[in-house]
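In response to reviewer comment 3 from the previous cycle, which asked for concrete evidence that the modeling workflow produces usable outputs, we include below a single protein chain processed end to end. The sequence was submitted unchanged, and the resulting structure tokens are shown without manual editing.
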Amino acid sequence: MTALAFDPVGHIYTTEDGQVIPSVTNIIVPLTTYYRVPMDKLRLAADRGTAVHKLTEQWDKYGMVTFPDCGRVCDDDCPCGPRDEFEGFLSAWKHFQDEHAFKPLQVELRVYHEEHGYAGTLDRIGRIDGDLSVIDIKTSNKVGPAMGVQLAAYKEAANAMYPNRAPIKRRFVVQLRADGTYALEEFTSVWDFPAFLGCLSLWHWQRSLDKPTEVRLQPPPLPRAPFQELARASGLRSPAPFPDLMPEQDYIVRDGHAIH
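The workflow returned the following structure tokens.
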């Protein structure tokens, strides 16, 4: 298994030989709407989310927390939020765990899909109502459909890394609220991982335009889900098999053009 180094400032993963591996969150940027949010609000939301993630991580690993632990000397005027708000988020996480018999098996797990060439850090792996699931913790007011794509990428990477373990089957977002309540949303679309692979191809295409020097790229394999399953999910009706749209061969990219 290839070892990865992670730069939390630039949010960059690199291999031992210095190769940059794109992160899941950077790959799916075209699907997000963060650019519509004012930067100051986005920064505060990110600080609050980071602090809450640290609290839940401390709780799951050690059974105790240090408030507010957001990297600052904080009081009730902390820009991340007052202490009672942090206590509400942590209380919401505990309620979720109690009500769904959730016990984390992995906390902040770094995953790397060698075949597709991407990496990321998922929040939790554990069983929800008995089913092995990947979990993302959110404190934002809205959870968009791009989260299904993100979780599908984590799920496939974790299953590829540990082929001899029980596979992850379900994907959830746990949305924590400051009043101690939470919302649990499951993502089930069979289109989520194909959508991620499309974003990954777009990521490589954009970089190929920025690098006129000749590089060799291996197109990512097509998803293996049968066409009939995808068709049923979208309401399509076709008995035709899912076609091979991309040949199994190397491409040479020179000055942004593929030659084969």
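The longest helix spans residues 39-62. We consider this sufficient to address the reviewer's concern, and the full set will be provided in the supplementary archive.
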